[in-house]
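Support request from a user on the community tier.

User writes: "When I paste my structure tokens into the form, the page sometimes reloads and wipes my input. The last time it worked, I copied everything first. Here is what I submitted, just in case something in the input itself triggers the reload:"
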């Protein structure tokens, strides 16, 4: 895969659809970029995909729900791989409000301010009623942006983990269980070292506590923006993440390595 590509939506649970894409990272493989539709009484879209795939994103989204029916956009954070169709969604879903944090609003204002009457501020630990269930905002154990909030849905027993628990992969799969476990472990560790380099300087005990907070929720489904849907694998995935602080920090290719890569890519 040499360019960002959208795939067909699939169901992760009875009322959760995944709208998946993959983004290639030269030298590292591919990373999933998922959005989700939680078909609650008040339907919730979780993130809005990649900027360059916005047309396809809107098309795939429309195949799982009429955007006009969306009531909430849970914006996990404001990175470019999560806000790709944000403005089109605001237009297509006039009843929709964006669940984010004060910092999320602030960071968006550096780019294009969000309309304040379409905002709903929710901090980690706080909850919101979406008609047939109450979603609770959760700070994931790892993240790359300070405004990040994931959430827990008790009705489906799903933890929407934002960037946390993602993985670099070699090929697309629909279900994490289809991946070789050693490749999964390596891909998850590599992703976490890239996405959250601060994991190498955290207090191991405090980090373990933040993982225990997720274990206490005991989610059946882990729905990361950067991992195919994972069912009944929570302990395995948290176990891989737990090892990250003691692993090798990621160092990106330098100029010499870049020139070597370009030589291979261009055949020069
Ligand atoms: Fe991010
Ligand atoms: Fe991300």
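"...and here is what came back when it finally went through:"
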């Amino acid at each position: 895969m040499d360019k960002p590509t959208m795939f067909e939506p699939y169901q992760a649970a009875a009322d959760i659809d995944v709208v998946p894409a993959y983004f290639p990272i030269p030298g590292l493989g591919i990373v999933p970029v998922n959005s989700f539709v939680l078909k609650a009484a008040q339907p919730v879209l979780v993130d809005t995909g990649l900027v360059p795939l916005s047309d396809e994103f809107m098309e795939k989204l429309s195949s799982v729900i009429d955007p006009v029916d969306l009531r909430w956009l849970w914006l996990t954070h404001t990175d470019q791989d999560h806000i790709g169709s944000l403005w089109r969604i605001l237009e297509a879903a006039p009843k929709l409000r964006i669940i984010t944090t004060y910092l999320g609003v602030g960071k968006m204002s550096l780019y294009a301010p969000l309309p304040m009457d379409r905002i709903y501020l929710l901090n980690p630990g706080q909850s919101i009623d979406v008609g047939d269930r109450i979603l609770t905002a959760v700070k994931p154990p790892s993240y790359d942006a300070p405004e990040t909030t994931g959430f827990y849905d008790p009705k489906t027993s799903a933890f929407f983990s934002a960037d946390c628990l993602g993985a670099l992969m070699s090929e697309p799969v629909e279900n994490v269980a289809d991946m070789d476990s050693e490749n999964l472990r390596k891909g998850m560790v590599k992703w976490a070292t890239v996405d959250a380099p601060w994991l190498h300087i955290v207090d191991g005990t405090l980090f373990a506590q933040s993982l225990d907070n997720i274990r206490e929720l005991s989610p059946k489904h882990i729905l990361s923006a950067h991992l195919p849907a994972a069912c009944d694998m929570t302990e395995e995935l948290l176990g891989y993440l737990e090892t990250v602080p003691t692993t090798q920090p990621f160092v990106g290719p330098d100029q010499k390595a870049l020139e070597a890569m370009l030589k291979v890519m261009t055949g020069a």
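Agent notes: The reload is a front-end session timeout and is unrelated to the input. The longest helix spans residues 181-195. The chain has a mean pLDDT of 96. Escalated to web team.
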